[in-house]
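SAMPLE LOG
Freezer: B-3
Tube label: C17
Construct: single chain, 295 aa
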Amino acid sequence: MITEPLRGRVSQCPVAIVTDSTVCLPQVFLRRFPIQIVPLQLTIGDWTYQDGVDLEYDEFYRVLAERDVDARTSAPTPKAFLNAFREASTLTNNILCLTISARLSATYDSALLAAGMASDQFRGLNIKVVDSGAVGGALALIVLESAKSAVTGASLDVVADTAKQIGEKVQFLGVLETLRYAWKSGRVPRPLVWASSFLNIKPVLDIHQGDINLLARPRTKQRAVYQMLQTIENRAGTDGLHVNVMHAGVPDEADSLAEQISEYFGCTELFISAFTPVMGTYTGPGLLAIAFWAE
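STRUCTURE (predicted):
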């Protein structure tokens, strides 16, 4: 969804942020900051949907859990990014575009093409396209810190540097109910899927700079959550944390996880977000994930 331009705030915010719909960022932040979202596309059968726009999250995960859905995803078109840049230009002449890792999607390439088109069409418009190296809630944390920098009056270069600095710090951990959906992406070997199903393993994934690694193979979700919390402490300590808790159709579990994090860690920032259908296509329902970085 492309948010309404924040007209009348150009002098207060010289940089606008454009990102893609894989970002797990609650609407409250989209209303507060100059952030515009360009949706990826999700095709189910003969129907194509705009991610996060015209497909209900709860309904999507219910259908995904009940039957084998043939879902395919695709990056936004350059035209979609060009439209977002046009909208952002009503706010400012400086735009920072942050995308999902180029190793996971063609979204970055699409944004680059659109930036070149925009430079030809809009005189004086400055656009920087940055591959965040991140996905989901990790991308959200990068976008959020960049937006905070933007509203302080920072220049485009400074806001872009902020994005790169947070991108180096931010980490993503997630536990899946099954590897079956991830296998459809072609990034998980079939024997590992068979083994995880047979042994009832709840795989914990570690995603950084576009690399997807299997961190642990616990047999219960409770144990998987414990290992994620231990990993956060080992890597980032217990104080000054910025945390985004994500879920795919299990809001109650996300609430419980956020409570545990709040009790155990000193969080500067903690919020909960939902995985969009494009993301959930490759995780399946039941995912719990944590994106975090430490000051």
